[in-house]
Structure formats: C-alpha cells, structure tokens
Amino acid sequence: MEETTKSKVKIRVAGTEYTVLTQESADYTKGLAKEVDDSIQEMCSSGRISITAAAILTAVNLCDRIRKYGIEAEALGEQIETYLHTASRQLERYEELKRENEKLKKDIATYRKRLKEEHPALKEPSPLSEAHKPPKHTVAVSHQEEAAEDETAFFTALNSGFKGIRNEE
Fold this sequence. Notes:
Elements: E1 7-13, E2 16-22, H1 26-44, H2 51-118, H3 141-165
Antiparallel strand pairs: 1-2
Helix pairs in contact: 1-2, 2-3
C-alpha cells in the first residue's frame, strides 16, 4: 500500500485559527478554508444570524453542492456509456461493411473473369471511358454513341452473368 505524505496547514475560518492535517497542498487547503470563511462571513454580514448558524448553513449548502455534483457526474457517466456503446456499434457496423465491401470486390472480380471467359469478344469499358470524360474539344457524337453501346452491351452481359450465378434465371 502506498503511503501518502500528510502535512499540517494552518487555516482561519470565522475568526478562529485551526491546524489541519492534510494530504493536499497548503494552497489548496487554504483555498477551501477561504471559501467556507467567505460563505460564513456573507451570511453573518446581515447581522441576523450567528456564526454557528452560518457555519451550519454553509455545511448544508456545501453538502447540497456535493450531492448535486455527484448526480451530475453520474448522469455524465451514463451519457459517456451511451456514447461508448453507440461508437462501439458504429465501429462494428463499419467493420461489417468493410468485410461486405471486400466480399463484393471479390465477387465483381469473379464475375468479370467469368464474363470474360464466356464472352471473350466483349470489351470492358474503362472507368473513365470517352463517354464519361469531359471533352477536351468537340467529340464526335458517333464516338460517344459507340462507347455507350459498348458499355450497354457490357453491363447487359454482366447482369445476365449475375442472374446465372445467383440462380435467378
């Protein structure tokens, strides 16, 4: 078990000096005492309340603050738990989608290979075929029509390949 170093700190509350034994720094302890003393002095400034009553009310107020902070801390902890749970579910979903994406990439590669074997004369369009590229200059309409026909034929054949593989004939 780790031993903690305690030190004696002199504080003044409600006109009386006390020596306290604490693990905290002297500045921290004196700051707490000043907060209590300020609260008591503020209550006593009206002249209608005794130091004892002011000290009791200060203690009650501080206990109230501690309890409310505890409730807030608990609510924040629950909120963090919810965020962590949501983030965990999102991460799982991301991983699931990543695996599905990899599977789909493999399926596409398989379908392309099969399509190429079954239709060797079919030309696969490039991702940026002339039909999709912005024209540098005026492109002949007939060239665009040829590219569109090539892509249409490719995707029609690809779709029929999918139906055969998925037994949707």
